[in-house]
Amino acid sequence: MELKATSLGKHLAQHPYNRVRLLAAGVEVKGERHEYLIPFNQLIAINCKRGLVWGELEFVLPDDKVVRLHGTEWSETQRFYHHLDTLWQSWSAEMSDVAAQVLHQQYAEITRRIQQEKWFKRSDMQALQQNVRAAFTGLPLPQARLEDFENCREVWLQCKAWLEQGEQRRSQRNTAFTKHMLEKYADFFQKIESSPLNPSQARAVVNGEDSLLVLAGAGSGKTSVLVARAGWLLQRGEASEDQILLLAFGRKAAQEMDQRIAERLHTDAISARTFHALALHIIQQGSKKVPRVSELESDTHARHQLLIESWQQQCREKKAQAKGWREWLSEELQWEVPEGEYWKDERLAKRLASRLDRWLGLMRMHGGSQAEMIASAPEEIRDVFAKRVKLMAPLLKTWKTALKSEEAVDFSGLIHQAVNVLEKGRFISPWKHILVDEFQDLSPQRAALLAALRKQNSHTSLYAVGDDWQAIYRFSGAEMSLTTAFAHHFGDADQCALDTTYRFNDRIGEIANRFVQQNPHQLAKPLNSLSKGDKKAVTLLADDQLEALLDKMSGYVQPQQRILVLARYHHLRPAILEKAATRWPKLAIEFMTIHASKGQQADYVVILGLQEGKDGFPAVVRESVMEEALLPQPEDYPDAEERRLLYVAMTRARHRVWLLFNKKEPSSFVDILKHLGVPAANRP
């Protein structure tokens, strides 16, 4: 059957199409130079319109495309339209049965997937949506028409919703799953730790995403959650003991975690490792030659002595080296350098030793050649950095010679070797789940080791617990963006937070949290306290009142209660503490730097040194070009890391914190704390 425009209609319409022919399951629209074949499975609608004299047929296609035929005789147009529409509707009804079958099968598959008793991961959602899209491409009807058919409408809308509202539906489904798990395994969450897990801890344990960052503020039970997560994987049969890898950042932390696992999980088959122990294990399994870690890595004094002696030798024997180092120390770092043979000055050498150690560590951590190191430096400091690398080169050579003579490796070399073994496929990871504590302290080198492990098996999950508010180790290479931009570095990821602290009272929590969150770059998270504290729980006190404060504390602090006295640097230890054992024999007083106090807790904390100027807090840390080139760029916020350092110091305390400030030269933090409502006292 065919419909043609009349001669006059064709002339007046001046349209590319002037006739249409009915096909078996479609129509062919043609003109003198154009033709368009429209199968029924691409038709959205057919419209028949009447002009002043002639008729018009309109074929609506997907994406708002329209093909029109003008200038046909009206009665013939009507007759053709009714015949075409009858055939099209009959075909559509038949095809709707086929579509309904496909859609019902797909919805049954969706239902099967979401009813499985396991966490519905992002990868699961991606697979589900991919299947839905594939099913839609196999439908005999355009998707825009499916709502018109009763046998397709409801199931079509349900399938479509999983495409358009995928993340919302995934979240709702996982919320319901979590609630069910907390009810079904209530006994597990009650007994896995010495006290029952709170709801936020339990939710973090149940979350089974491939990559998960648990933001855990001070005293919120990070270790408890990691141990409980390992127990949960065993309880649910998601992993065997040898498929779980626990990573801590130091031997002591690893030992404490092992002890907790033995007590709570009643197994010694899961053992926490440091990153260096992990690297050593990988190399031992994937290489014939088993490396030995240099004794210099555990002997700071010997390491410093080696570097200083090498530095002194270079300055003594080479005038260019002596001149270069003088320029570096005096002009860039603005140190006072003695005239003449300055390298013999013991005070200067002692001060420089830790800097040489740090610079050497950063160069070793980089791992590339000196040329690659220089090429990767920011262009504006590249020339100066090249000079600094040249000055450090003899010390780097001395270090490598010392390692060679020991037939040993250093920590950086250990991790580089381990990554190399993994990339060459000499070690096959047995771990399905990697659990990492203190994630905010992760360096790019350690992140590369994790990435190499996960590259071997894309199904290996990464469960990380950390707190960007406690990121205070940038100077040693830690990169906070690995935490704050977790999903960017480790793929699609979930994020949750532990919202309760078991350590400090609500007054300490309020001041510490508001203080650190004034920096907009810090991740916002709730951290509620279980105990109440009065307005004096955090107090600013003049720094000449330390002795009077300890005198007063001796009257009410119990012998078993711990007092921490914290300062920015070791050399700020107050002289009065030398007499503490006899002056206040019943007080358990300990002094340490704030960096060393991380992970510690005490009943009372005294923080020293809130002053401006030399040895001030916040410290005026003058970075060398070495740090600028080899460390992550600092945040664009004043004293960002120093703020986090004070947060760490304040949150060591259970009951009270005193912040001792200099009345003549108060720290810039003093006014900030006063604006947050911290009272200032002249006497304790």
From TrEMBL:
Entry keywords, A to Z: ATP-binding, Helicase, Hydrolase, Isomerase, Nucleotide-binding
GO molecular function: DNA helicase activity; hydrolase activity
InterPro entries: DNA_helicase_UvrD-like_C, DNA_helicase_UvrD/REP, Helicase_IV_N, P-loop_NTPase, UvrD-like_ATP-bd
CDD domains: DEXQc_UvrD, SF1_C_UvrD
EC number: 5.6.2.4
Keyword Transmembrane helix belongs to the record: no
Chain sites annotated for binding ATP: A216, G217, A218, G219, S220, G221, K222, T223
Boundaries of every UvrD-like helicase ATP-binding domain copy: 195-505
Highest taxon, organism lineage: Bacteria
Reactions this protein catalyses: Couples ATP hydrolysis with the unwinding of duplex DNA by translocating in the 3'-5' direction; ATP + H2O = ADP + phosphate + H(+)
Top-tier EC class: isomerase
Record protein name field: DNA 3'-5' helicase
Species this protein is from: Buttiauxella selenatireducens
Gene assigned in the entry: helD
